[in-house]
Structures are given as structure tokens and as C-alpha cells.
Amino acid sequence: MLSLQDCIDLCELTEAEIEAIAEHEHIPTVVAVELAEYLVESEGGERRIRAMIRDDIQAALARSDRAHAQALVRVLRNFIATHPERETVD
């Protein structure tokens, strides 16, 4: 049987990135791992993940949770650094 950590380790995203998806979608982490893996492999999925993290940052700022917003900014920066936007070829 796979543990949650095993699932995270098999995903192309960090645990913090997966947690941001779970937060945005209001889903359990294990479900967010599946969604993350799907999005990373699908066209436009990485753009959607960036948007989710940005939404999470805005939500944290709206509730005056600056510490969480700053943590999410670090998550977003890492995601952008490790998943540069792919150019599509027609």
C-alpha cells in the first residue's frame, strides 16, 4: 500500500505545491496529488496551477494572513522556476 508521502514523492510537484492545490480546490491532499499529476501532464495545466497558487495568495492577503501569503509566494516562485511555461508548436 502506498502512503501519502509515497504518492507525493511520485508526483512532479513539491509537497508545498500540492498543498496549495489542495487549499485552492478544498480537497484532501491525496486527491490533490492526483490532480497535480494530471495538470502537469495536460496542456495548460501548469498555467492553471500557477493561477491556483496566485488565487491562494490573494485569499491569504484578503484575510490578512501575510505569513501564509509570503509562504505561497515562495511556492509560486519555486513552481515557476521548476516548471517554465512551455511553448506550444502548431
Could you outline the blueprint of secondary structure elements for this entry?
Blueprint: H1 4-10, H2 15-25, H3 29-41, H4 45-62, H5 66-82
Name the structural class.
mainly alpha
What is the beta-strand fraction? under 5%
Task: Characterize the main sheet.
Answer: none
| Topology pattern, helix = H, strand = E | HHHHH
* Mean pLDDT score: 89
Oligomer: single chain
Give the domain tally: 1
Question: Describe it for me?
Answer:
- The chain contains five helices and no strands.
- With 90 residues, the protein is an all-alpha fold.
- It has one domain.
- Helix 2 (15-25) packs across helix 3, helix 3 crosses helix 4 and helix 4 (45-62) runs antiparallel to helix 5 (66-82).
- The chain is globular.
- The mean pLDDT is 89.
- It starts with a helix and ends in an 8-residue tail after the last helix.
Write out key terms for the chains shown:
single chain, 5 helices, mainly alpha, 73% helix, 90 residues
Summary, kept brief:
The protein is mainly alpha-helical.
